[in-house]
Design a protein that fits this description.
single chain, alpha/beta, seven-stranded parallel beta sheet, 11 helices
Amino acid sequence: MSWTKVVAITGCDSGLGWAIAARAAREGLVTVAGMYQGTDTEASEALKNLCAHPFKLDVTDSRSVIEFRDYVKSVVQNNPNHKLYAVINNAGVMTIGDYEWQTPQIIENTININLLGAMRVVSAFLPDLRINANNGLKPRIINVASHCGLQPLPGFGPYSASKAGLLAWTRALQLEHVEDDLKVVAFIPGGFVQSSNLLGSQYLNGTAMLENLSEEQRILHEKRITNLNNYLKYASNNTRFDSMNNENLIETFMKTLTENKPKKMYKVESWRYKFYYNLLKIPFPDTIYKWLVKKFLKFPEN
């Protein structure tokens, strides 16, 4: 029997999530798109026009995750030839700033969405994916990670920690499901901040950082935080939901979704990413390492 594949994707309000949901729907996959901002947005309407199924989802809320899973199950159960094929953990947030600056709320939210959110989603869907694996469907879990998870950078501490944790957990899942043929894949996109809302809370969080400083910290850090916040202000402006147009990135992602024998990890790297990240693997003294990072990031220094 020929199965119609159902895919469930988190974080589809904009950027990579919206783009892969749109592409999956165009490819004929039954696509359920988790939308943090709900189903009455322009992004959601555009996905509906592609015959995707938007559904409100907050990956930090266990009840919301269960409702999302139940909706996906209803889509499957209402169509006898539908089978759950892939769960894609794309929802993510990033706040840039030294660890000392970041408030407990910012830190916890980063971990809660990027790592624990993915875990909640997988916990909800894993039994059905495992059953389908044993029935020969070759289903998969795809976790969207980051170069920062492979090579932590200053100013990205909690984000790097969340993505490194995601990669470690992904590897553990790969090994746990070798026998039942459930594929678990890490996807590492290159930088695409300007075509997403990944930094959507950066300016508000920068303001919260300033307000949370002690007097001693303010003397040391206020100028740097203010300059960085002003520099990143435009990156945190809301971009159009459909502004992701990196064809190489989307085509590489589709390999994770469609290849019969997917690799354990797929990476997308511009020449600049490849150059700097390969340099950063060399065990330079920390002073040289930090100089290279500054050249790579191009953030204001004062």
